[in-house]
Amino acid sequence: MKIVGVNIKRVREDRGMTLRSLSREVNVSASFLSQIETGKASPSLVTLKSIADALSTTVGNLIGEGQKVSDNPIVRASERTRLQEAGKGVGIYLLTSQDANKQMEPLLFKLSAKANSGGVSYKHFGQEFVLVLKGAIEITLNDSMYVLRKGDSIYFNSNVPHEFRNIGNEEAEAIWVITPPTF
Amino acid sequence: MKIVGVNIKRVREDRGMTLRSLSREVNVSASFLSQIETGKASPSLVTLKSIADALSTTVGNLIGEGQKVSDNPIVRASERTRLQEAGKGVGIYLLTSQDANKQMEPLLFKLSAKANSGGVSYKHFGQEFVLVLKGAIEITLNDSMYVLRKGDSIYFNSNVPHEFRNIGNEEAEAIWVITPPTF
DNA sequence: AAATTTGTTAAATAATACTTGACAGAGCCG
DNA sequence: CGGCTCTGTCAAGTATTATTTAACAAATTT
What we know:
Two copies of one chain form a homodimer. Chain A has five helices and nine strands; from the N terminus they run αααααβββββββββ. Chain A has helices spanning 3-14, 19-26, 30-37, 45-54, 59-62, and strands spanning 74-75, 90-94, 105-111, 127-134, 136-141, 144-149, 153-157, 162-166, 172-179.
């Protein structure tokens, strides 16, 4: 876990902070911070969280979670990969190349008229963002129902039970970004 | 840092794993895992990373980073907030309500003809996803230049220097999702 | 009902997180 | 120049805690 040190140092210097000024906010000695940054010591979880807070970043970023993604970053409109596991009338397309180190998974949903999520309520950690490009989609979170039309967007935690349904008579499209990637 | 325990337990049971089967993959004792799950002990960073790997999730998720977002998840197309700090000819609109616990920040970029990022190369941790909705946008990553047209998308690390430019004569629009939120 | 498997606990140890104090180098000001 | 304050780093010590071993009762299995 040596990467955490160089990341902390980098962000700290970005913020224009000194070891001692950071140590005051984190409530550890400047010496210890130095040892962490040089890889000679490793902080506890709570200390690392304090450091992340003081640097206004996240633990995930400090430990290098989701760094270095694919070399070929582009996905053209004409060459999207379609996911197999989608339900009836539900087409899901990848908007990135498959890569282990992504923090989020951007998808394009194409729902034919009246198509829906099929009653399966996904539950996993993470968050989701949906922006409707075409048509009208009804999204149910827990007990709340929302109707999203072109340009409307929604943001929610993945662990609340959620379902969706195309309520229009035409095909509906939406950008759907989830974190972390599950595909 | 008690939350890490209940999260581990939750994911482990989701995966249908037992304390001992998990302990075999993580190379710690099942007893220790139990102490972690019940909040009586706290794992070291490397151990937590091993646990996250074995459960195919991330450390960030296990420590509850970016849980519980806003109560009002919806942003209507007509009521988006515009960011002030945008440059000349560059309109940036929030696609979520402001909230401290988001893992990603979805934005809508509207670039008038020939508008560009102004030579500022942002550098911070995280990743970015861009999908062009309208027009043609040229994005430069390090030394590579990419032209994105309607429906094309790109995914890259925020720490590589990047710039953008509307190369068309009409207004261009793009969905721009960054992680972690900086606004 | 024996046997295996589940999660949990107590106690002991091995490891390491963290502090104190001191150091050399760099910048600054008189 | 000489003193002053700041920087980051290091060595050695202490205190904390991460982790193990072994044993336990409650479920499950056979």
